[in-house]
Design goal:
The complex is a heterodimer of chains A (about 190) and B (about 170). Chain A is mainly beta and about 190 residues long. Helix content of chain A is about 10%, strand content about 50%. Chain A has one helix and ten strands, in the order αββββββββββ. Chain B has two domains: about 30 residues; about 130 residues, Calycin beta-barrel core domain (Lipocalin), CATH 2.40.128.20. The chains are: A mainly beta (about 190), B alpha+beta (about 170).
Chain lengths: ~190, ~170
């Protein structure tokens, strides 16, 4: 009888505790700090049509007032790596903070021969930027083609329990024309001697 | 002899003037054809669809101008467009630095349609791109709005905008 009388109060307390302690959903989650992305990630990604497999290593590191992303990609057409047509590419992108919260712009190296200028989208320059929204680090690049069509490349890296999910979409005038999705694990530094 | 030379020189001057007048008039005539007449004027209608930020009553005023056009959307500032030097698209000088949140506008013609773009880096640094497609239709224009933005599937809305200036 006593237990029955107390049950609603216990249930309500348990529910309240669940609500308070439960991790927030993604929509409610606050923006991750850029520092949360720092580290190395190893994994794979796939383009469905035509089928392409990619081995990917990402390393995100702090720089003064921003961050760098190194991406190494092995492009395969089948499950094996050691085949004749295997391709590889690597690139490093460097972004610094802008005056707008969450928004980063490509770092432009100063030259004694030229002044820093903003990219002119209308003149054919690539407009690139990066931002952190929720648990996602987005890197964007946009171009206007000479005939007025636009091309937008969206590279998003979302933090997960394992490491991060990758998503790349290239839009041509608003229509997705190429998509890649993948999953990477956060890798630990191996300090053991060979 | 002297008279013939004088007449010949006068003819050359007249022909030269004609060539200059023609070369000046030709771009103006081309400019007046930049946007189809059927798309110029005042239009209004009701927008329905998934691009929910633009819905309900909508007006569009489009005026052709030398070398370009201006467009005014419901309750918003007039935006001016000028043809690019190669004539393949229209650009707007409106706005400022895009990464500070200022919008960029451009447009192009495709067949009978005018396609107007608006792009901005939105809140949280995401992309936010609207595409307005205007095609002449009976009694007005058909408008299709496509909205592409971070974290969302592409959205689309439509309207038949009726002409109300004639």
């Amino acid at each position: 009888m006593t237990a029955e009388r107390h049950f609603p109060r216990i249930a309500a307390t348990a529910l309240l505790a669940l609500l308070v302690l439960a991790p927030p959903t993604r929509a409610d989650s606050p923006d991750a700090a850029i520092e949360e992305f720092f580290g190395a990630y190893v994994g794979e990604a796939m383009i469905e049509e035509p089928a392409q497999f990619r081995d990917i290593i990402v390393s995100i590191n702090p720089i003064r007032n921003g961050f760098s992303i190194y991406t190494s990609t092995v492009i395969r057409t089948g499950p094996r790596r050691a085949v004749k047509d295997v391709k590889w590419r690597a690139e490093t992108q460097v972004f610094v903070r802008t005056g707008t919260p969450h928004v980063f712009e490509p770092m432009v190296r100063k030259s004694m021969f030229s002044e820093k200028r903003d990219p002119d989208l209308m003149a054919g320059d690539t407009l690139a930027w990066a931002s952190v929204r929720g648990r996602t680090l987005g890197v964007y690049a946009m171009n206007l083609l000479a005939d007025g069509h636009y091309e937008l490349r969206v590279f998003e890296r979302t933090l997960t329990e394992l490491g991060m999910d990758l998503s790349f979409v290239r839009y041509n005038d608003g229509l997705p024309v190429r998509e890649l999705r993948g999953s990477l694990a956060r890798a630990k530094q191996d300090d053991e001697p060979n | 002899m002297f008279g013939n030379r004088c007449i010949s020189r006068s003819l050359s001057v007249l022909m030269g003037a004609g060539v200059i007048m023609f070369s000046l008039a030709a771009p103006a005539a081309a400019a007046s054809k930049t946007v189809p007449e059927d798309l110029q004027g005042k239009f209004r209608g009701t927008v329905t669809g998934a691009a929910s930020e633009i819905s309900g009553e909508f007006t569009m005023i489009l005026q052709g101008e030398r070398g370009g056009f201006t467009i005014t959307w419901s309750g918003r500032d007039r935006i001016g467009f000028q043809k690019s030097p190669d004539g393949k698209m229209f650009r707007s000088e409106a706005g400022g630095r895009i990464l500070d949140g200022n919008p960029a506008y451009w447009a192009r013609l495709e067949g009978d349609s005018l396609i107007v773009y608006s792009m901005r880096v939105g809140f949280h640094g995401g992309y936010d791109i609207y595409t307005y497609i205007y095609t002449p239709a009976e009694g007005g224009v058909d408008m299709v709005i496509r909205h592409l933005r971070s974290g969302s599937e592409p959205l689309e809305s439509k309207a038949r905008l009726k002409r109300y200036d004639r």
